[in-house]
User: What shape does this take?
Amino acid sequence: MSVTRDLIEADDSMPGVLLRQDPELAEILLAERRRQSTTLQLIAAENFTSPAVLAALGSPLANKYAEGYPGARHHGGCEIVDVAERLAVERAQDLFGAEHANVQSHSGSSAVLAAYAALLRPGDTVLALGLPYGGHLTHGSPANFSGRWFDFVGYGVDAETGLIDYDQVRTLARTHRPKAIVCGSIAYPRHLDHAFFRDVADEVGAYLIADAAHPIGLVAGGAAPSPVPYADIVCATTHKVLRGPRGGMILCGGALAERVDRAVFPFTQGGAQMHTIAAKAVAFGEAATPAYAAYAHQVIANARVLAAHLAAEGLVVTTGGTDTHLITADPAPLGVDGKAARGRLAAAGIVLDCCALPHGDARGLRLGTAALTTQGMGEREMRAVATLLAEVLRGGTDAAAARNGVRDLVTEFPPYPE
Ligand SMILES: *Cc1c(COP(=O)(O)O)cnc(C)c1O
Assistant: This one.
């Protein structure tokens, strides 16, 4: 750890109590905060929560045991946290126009597990985007409960266009008669045709589960089409574009409310994490503001500019662009594959992920604009990021020079200015 004790002492935002009691851990927190504020966060699933969200996370609500639901808990003393959970539920329902919201899922994966538990039995057939094309681990990976307990069939994307092969979705649904169809991805940069998925699900008598972990924040800001009117169950995370605490959420109609709630607790989880639920309420409140709607639209505007400039620099952008916060691109024309590119960029202070590409075995890069946009960066900065990234990949600049470019950007746009 390179951070010196002097620096920690000088840092008055680090809670003094942690510094005095556990300087070893305090140093780690400070180092991570520095890392986040001195490098470019292009990981598509990440964002910077507000100080208000962090305050709720670090509150004494963390002490409270609260198994069950408001008004029906297995523990005493829940009358105040009940108010917090009701508030989070009401805000989520209002924000997304959903009849029912469950805000207890500990993560996006837990929300998907609960959705399956609510609708399926082990051995049921499920149709979902295949993992090589951007399906999540919970969409049938053999390393995940989903692949072991259910019989997953994967649809794909067109190798040329990178777009979902909707004809294949219908054909596979007719052939395999799945009990549920899952739409949603970790890497698909385009809006999904929810009406199409609903139509196919109705044709074959399947449930439709939308795993909207990535775009749900864009939906909250009115910048992307909502799956809520179409899907039987919508699973989501609260920590990606939505900019809340790390956690999950489920939305559904009134008819499935009871089954979904039972599937979360007691079937797949224990006590609710009340500090996180309070922080979700804060984030839903923030997401209902005009400022957040403007943010969500700017996230997409930034992603479009970034995608266009990456393409101009020679990267092959999957689907030719993006409708969302997310871009996937093949850096091969610059003479480097995704895996090597990620390492080279990390050394330069540009942090992003690898991802699968629609064609072939080579890995590509996955980028998102949610975090940079929270920092206040706009289209001018996206052009600068694309230029810097391409220079690093071409080997036209060394890591130290690139880090200076990164520093210039993040110094002007600190994630936590106060
Ligand atoms: C992020 C994501 C998840 C999982 O969320 P975790 O909180 O990491 O469990 C599930 N599905 C999709 C499509 C995702 O993008």
Remarks:
- The pocket of pyridoxal-5'-phosphate is lined by residues 45, 107-109, 112, 136, 138, 184-186, 211, 213-214, 237, 248 (CB under 6 Å).
